[in-house]
Amino acid sequence: MFFNQNSTNNMFMKNLLTLILLIFYTLAPAHSTTFQGGVSEQGSGTSSRIVDRNTGVGIGGAKIELPKQKYSTETDSEGYFELNTHIDGTTIMSVQKENYKPFSITLNQKALSAPIVIGIEKTSADGMVLDSNMYHLGDNSFSELSANASEFRLESIGPFYTKRFLLKNVKFNKPIFLVIGSIIGIDTNLARSLGQNRINNAFASPPEVYFNGNKISEIQINGDGQKIKIPPVLIRKNQVNEVTIKTGRNIMQTAYIDYDDIEFMNLFFEN
Ligand SMILES: [Ca+2]
């Protein structure tokens, strides 16, 4: 018998390594999940935590909100908090603290079944908060199967949202972005194919984003922290500029206009 002990050992080691990696990737999210950069923390008991993204230090007195559940709580002096509410489907959780950028994240019960650690970032001169409120666009008519339908709480403000703001000291040698903190409810074909909704027989055109009247983006999927590049040529220096977000419409409905009901929160200008 020509038995090659070495290659058998190598294969065994390779399989073992694969198994260890598999276990690692399978188990890692069950302990705790860290969002927004650099901070790594596992198995910190039953409490979730808000930390400073750069220093890793817990942030006391941060306000945690689940707008749908009309639930809010605060972190303790060490940054720990617990969510004593039931979450049905997906929900947007927001974190606010003075001198920090407002933060929001789309979560579901599964993500919240284990402690989470969220790093938030100090406000900087390179960015500006345009709006930290949550808005509902559409016509308040939507299917229960729609992406995040159970999340809708606010009355619609109509099919579009507009915000005007003064832009000073823009650095044109750096990229300029509009950032949408969180957006849910988009029922595009792509969102459907990614399993973000359960509607089989219809889909919507994507929401459109305009800057000073020019379309700069279409938003195809739901999610957090979507960055949209603003072409520098569209920016009015040291003057009032305008952002508009227009929701899409149900493409299969031709008898009347059925706007796609979406909600978004936290708009930033980043430079
Ligand atoms: Ca609708």
Verbal overview:
The structure is a single chain. With about 270 residues, the chain is mostly beta strands. It has two domains: about 90 residues, Carboxypeptidase-like, regulatory domain (Immunoglobulin-like, Sandwich), CATH 2.60.40.1120; about 140 residues, Jelly Rolls. Helices cover about 10% and strands about 35% of the residues. The protein has two helices and 16 strands. Strands 1-8-2-5 form a four-stranded mixed β-sheet. The protein has a four-stranded antiparallel β-sheet with strand order 4-3-6-7, with no helix packed on it. A four-stranded antiparallel β-sheet has the order 9-16-11-14, with no helix packed on it. The structure holds calcium ion. The site of calcium ion (CA) has 8 residues, from loops.
